[in-house]
């Protein structure tokens, strides 16, 4: 469910880039392949998840995106690929909206795109950085807790 939610938001970001760059499709052609790579890698990683015992002796297992220790570098891509995609999308949003905001000849919608995009990105940035390090360094029972 986490991967589905992340990719729905990523698709919304692609639509935002398309709306901002309708006359310059190079931006969409730059962002769309990143989204495709993210979806493919996360889909493949979903097939490699394993059940994790969360509390010793409880017998309670849950399936989550936690992987064998030899996959830690690749597993962390489930966190940093969406972050890379969001960074590029936010950068393109800033590039397109900042000149008109500086010149004070912008509409409310442009300011909202920038403000909402920055709020979303700053939140995702903090959570994803924590998640990336937890996937690499935390014990298996809590590795993916920041993704929830």
UniProtKB/TrEMBL annotation:
Keywords: Membrane, Transmembrane, Transmembrane helix. The keyword Transmembrane helix applies. The chain crosses the membrane at residues 6-21, 26-46, 79-97, 118-138. It comes from the Eukaryota. This is Uncharacterized protein.
């Amino acid at each position: 469910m986490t991967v589905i939610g992340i990719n729905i938001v990523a698709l919304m970001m692609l639509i935002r880039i398309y709306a901002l760059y309708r006359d310059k499709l190079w931006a969409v052609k730059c962002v769309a392949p990143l989204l495709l790579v993210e979806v493919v890698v996360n889909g493949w990683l979903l097939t490699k998840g394993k059940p994790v015992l969360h509390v010793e002796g409880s017998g309670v297992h849950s399936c989550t995106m936690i992987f064998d220790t030899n996959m830690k570098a690749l597993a962390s891509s489930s966190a940093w690929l969406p972050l890379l995609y969001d960074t590029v999308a936010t950068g393109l949003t800033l590039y397109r909206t900042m000149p008109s905001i500086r010149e004070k000849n912008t509409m409310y919608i442009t300011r909202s795109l920038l403000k909402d995009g920055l709020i979303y990105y700053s939140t995702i940035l903090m959570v994803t950085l924590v998640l990336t390090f937890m996937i690499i360094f935390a014990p298996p029972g809590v590795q993916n807790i920041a993704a929830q």
